[in-house]
């Protein structure tokens, strides 16, 4: 073997060693999955402050002020009894992040899955930054159509194609004296979520909600902190109308 | 009955048309052909449920031609994909019904542990109440999506929007935790035997029905909370999935029942669609009225079996 060939072999070996080293470093980094994405996996639960009269942990007074005149007319016809979760319709995000219930995040290359324990549903979120489902195949839904991309440690999820049936908050959320506890949305809603890994045991969640048919300007949630839970999995927790919402949620907490 | 059947057909049609919608534009529906009612919803030229079933049934797995994808993290078969339809390529050695204990009959005729049913002899069943499909009866005939991820297999059901989380024991032998509470779908924990994922499911709530037998022709094939299911999931090639379950329930069955070998084909898309099952109290109320009037027409008795709602075994 010539000297040149030997050199090539040596260079190749060094390059291979370096590449392997890099790959192993990536795998050893607990903040990343083995394929090099930020690792958001685990069972999480949001820190929710105790509901005190007059407290506004979720910036809902601001939201209340953003409703259009048309939306206010619609909301006058509704009451707390019309909350869709009372019929076991799953709350979409960001409301689901404001309930203090557990969720589980699972990742594989190109996808993240967010499974909620209360009102159990699975969100399927492509993480490659691809386009939304083509318009002719989109249909309005409770959870909407999600697509996402990574910005540093943050998964930025863009959600469209809602059915306008969901509420943005719960009937017990009454941030001002005039609050009715009714929080409607429309099919024009567009949600941008930011899921960020803060450290091994903490996620930060923020959402911006645009809804040209019901809001005069975008509304932003405050940062909501999710803490890692010791459980390795969430439980099956079926919502049944015969239980009633309160019984259901109490049973979940047991 | 009619509503439930229609809903199932609509879901099948949605799954099928959605799958092929990725490659073909939607055209006006073709007329109904024979008994294959999904044909009524499908654009001309798109495979019907019968055609898809026949294609999957006659397929010969060929891993050389269709290699089984493997995960980047443990090099095990990657189950990720959307699967439909399902066909039994090898029947169960014995019918499930033949293993039912005679002394479970009274419990079964009372509707079993499935409390809350309106009229178990006719219009409703666990699925009617949006209870999730149970692994006890081979999961579901509807479209589902499997997701392989480090340490987990997820099963996401299109019909009803329910899901199963199946943690998988690591190569180091570390055992994942079981779920704490009894549930419809039980607590699943998987481990690898070669390239087959073996999933043991326990801690059921006694409410799932084990088979498709429907009243009034047969009493429901109820389960108890002693139910234990061992599932074997494998991929014969990159186009198919195979599934077989062995069901043990000493309170209901005289011995373990080995289910059929089921093969599933794949659909050419990577996400199921939202198709939630939402209980409708108003519909239930109307059906309760109907059940009561049907019972009155039958001779005035309540629309329950001879054993009433109580009975031995099962339940929570």
Task: Summarize the helices and strands and which ones pair or pack.
The complex is a heterodimer of chains A (254) and B (316).
Chain A: H1 3-28, E1 42-46, H2 60-66, H3 69-76, E2 102-108, E3 111-116, E4 122-126, E5 145-151, E6 154-160, E7 190-199, E8 202-210, E9 219-220, E10 224-228, H4 245-253
Chain B: H1 2-21, H2 49-58, E1 81-90, H3 105-109, E2 144-149, E3 152-157, E4 163-167, E5 187-193, E6 196-202, E7 228-234, E8 241-248, E9 257-258, E10 261-267, H4 281-298
Antiparallel strand pairs in B: 1-2, 1-10, 2-3, 3-4, 5-6, 6-7, 7-8, 8-9, 8-10
Order of helices and strands of chain A: HEHHEEEEEEEEEH
* Count of β-strands of chain B: 10
| Percent strand of chain A | 15-25%
Q: Approximately how much helix is present in the residues of chain B?
A: 10-25%
Number of domains of chain A: 2
Give the amount of beta strand of chain B, in percent: 15-25%
* Low-pLDDT residue spans of chain A: 17-27
Number of helices of chain B: 4
Number of domains of chain B: 2
The appropriate CATH architecture of the largest domain in chain A is Beta Barrel
| Overall pLDDT of chain B | 79
Radius of gyration of chain B: 20 Å
In the CATH hierarchy, the third-tier topology of the largest domain in chain A is known as Lipocalin
